[in-house]
Amino acid sequence: MRPLRFDNRFARELPADPSTAPGRRQVVGALYSHVQPAPVAAPRLLAWSPECAAVLGWTEDDVRAPRFAEVMGGNGLLEGMQPIAANYGGHQFGQWAGQLGDGRAITLGETVNARGERWELQLKGAGPTPYSRTADGRAVLRSSVREYLCSEAMHHLGVPTTRALCLVGTGEQVVRDMFYDGHPREEPGAIVCRVAPSFIRFGNFELPYWRDDHALLAQLVDFTIRRDFPHLAGDADPIDDTVRARWFAEVAERTATMVAHWMRVGFVHGVMNTDNMSILGLTIDYGPYGWIDDFDPDWTPNTTDAHGRRYRFGHQPQVAYWNLTRLAGALTPLFATQDPLHEGLERYERTYVGAHRANVAAKLGLAACADDDLRLMQALCALLKAAEADMTIFFRALADADPGSPSLATFDEAFYDAGKRAAHAEAFAAWLRDYAARVRSDARAPAERRAAMLRANPRYVLRNYLAQQAIDRAEDGDTAGIDELLDVMRRPYDDQPGRERFAAKRPDWARERAGCSMLSCSS
Ligand code: AMP
Ligand code: MG
User: What is the CB < 6 Å shell around ligand 1?
Assistant: First the structure.
């Protein structure tokens, strides 16, 4: 295996927990703990991402080396690795939850590739840490397949995300009570190696704030700016209020951009707690996430959130804003006045509104989004919901609508319920007439409009039932379904002849099946 160059700045520059004793504990005055991955019985490479490996400078030969599965299973370290678990807190479902931390994620180190890019390698499911609280530090195969597939699928969709290098089976069983209903069972264990420039979350800043450790908070902020936002730091030494204000505004901007992408492709994160919000505006912590099939802004895949539906699809832009207000609150001790924080929050709103308008224009194939177009989109969304139409199929088909004489027949594949389709056929026809008139008034040539729509409206998304089918096969020992699905997701905006079934609407059997429409946090 080709060696990687490691430069572990987080561990080197920030204060560590002095204790390396095993066992769960509160860690005060430190931003991380030194830990070791717990070895597993029989690590086996189940899947890997060539694109992600290439980013690190690894090829198939490196990944196929027996040592690779050993390291990615937690049974050995490469020269230069320095495993740690980060200490952070967070607001869970709206409540301050205190210390959380990496309870089953272990950072192996920060590697710097040939292009000078920094990439942190992190094993998820590598065993207990001081932050594991009541849980075992492990992850099950089904959740690991979901994280592996979605990380790479989001990347190919053009959505900011953490990446996944590989999926390793541990050869051990893990006990989980999938729906917390008193039916625990043994499931195969697995580990995903996640890769990102930084895994710092909003919650990393909240914890020192809530503990009144303002010096530690300032140290982390300035470290984050220097390491992860070097274009803001410049030569500033020390980093002053102006730089910190620009940083918060950029975090707000990136967060808005990320959520706008989610809304464009129909992604529901499922657990937008502040410990699951990346400071780089990357989609992070793939748990009970899901994809919109029939369009429904009130839908959430997360059964743990079924009651309040805090993290439902249509609420995500507001939740991200609320999460930013928690981060802003945590940063107040660093600023003489709160003005810069208010300005950062306004930046979120402005960026999101702009990105939303860009989504509307792109999804409808318009050169720009006028105020009336917002209403046109709102009317369409209301219809899609009332008629139970598939979001992905509908918008993709819209590119094929004939502005001369639009017909609802173009959208046949999108409907789940013939009765509901019939009940709304007239309203759709009226909407299509409005849309066609709007398209005719647009300056764009038809071919240009169509091409723009195909770039904004994916043909393939990681439908929940497709991931579940790949998981079912993997649990029976056949990982080919994972590779095939990822291969489809490599080119989500291209029609792929012969792969129509991956673009089909959710089959009836998947409507209420666990894993397909209902997921919990039990991973
Ligand atoms: P999540 O809901 O996945 O964002 O996790 C919330 C917190 O619970 C984080 O601190 C995780 O590290 C921790 N956690 C989740 N699952 C486990 C597990 N199996 N073992 C230890 N800690 C866990
Ligand atoms: Mg988390």
Answer: 100-104, 131-132, 135-138, 271, 275-276, 285, 287, 521
Query: Contact 347/338 with Cβ under 8 angstroms?
Result: no
Q: Where are the beta strands (DSSP E) in 5-132?
A: 32-34, 44-48, 84-86, 89-92, 95-99, 105-112, 118-124
Ligand 1 atom nearest to 138, measured from its CA: 19
Q: Relative to the alpha carbon of 92, which ligand is closest? A: 1
Name every residue whose Cβ is closer than 8 Å to that of residue 353 and which is 6 or more positions away in sequence.
Answer: none
Q: Given a cut of 80, is residue 111 above it in pLDDT?
A: yes
DSSP 227-296: HH-HHHHTT-SS--HHHHHHHHHHHHHHHHHHHHHHHHHTEE-S---GGG-BTT--B---SS-EE-SB--
Residues 6 or more apart whose CB falls under 8 angstroms from that of 370 comprise none
Dist. CA 58–CA 193, nearest whole Å: 14
For residue 105, the cross-strand partners are: 124
How far, in Å, is the centroid of ligand 1 from the Cα of 188?
18
Report pLDDT for 523. Answer: 65
Residue 324, classed as helix, strand or coil, is helix
What is the full DSSP assignment across 334-390?
A: G-SSSHHHHHHHHHHHHHHHHHHHHHHHHHHT-SS--HHHHHHHHHHHHHHHHHTBB
Q: Kindly state the average pLDDT of the residues 308-323.
A: 97
Assess contact for 362 and 444: CB atoms under 8 A.
Answer: no
The rounded Å distance from CA 194 to ligand 2 centre is 13
Joined together, the tokens standing for residue 324 give 């930013």
* Structural contact between residues 276 and 90, judged by C-beta atoms closer than 8 angstroms: yes
Which residue, among 178, 386, 422, 428, has the nearest Cα to 298 in the 3D structure?
386
Of residues 180 and 501, more confidently modeled? 501
Q: According to the model, what pLDDT value does residue 179 have?
A: 79
275 is catalytic: yes
In this prediction, residue 512 carries a pLDDT of 82
- Kindly report the protein residue whose alpha carbon is nearest to atom 7 of ligand 1: 100
Which residue has its alpha carbon closest to ligand 1 atom 11? 103
Cis peptide bond N-terminal to 238, omega within 30: yes
pLDDT score of 124: 98
Q: How many CB atoms lie within 10 A of CB 313?
A: 24
Mean of the pLDDT values across residues 245-252? 98
460: its two tokens? 């393939």
Q: What spacing in Å lies between the alpha carbon of 453 and ligand 2's midpoint?
A: 34
The set of residues, in sequence order, having a beta carbon less than 8 Å from that of 215 and lying 6+ positions away, is none
Considering 102, 275, 285, 293, which one is annotated as catalytic? Answer: 275
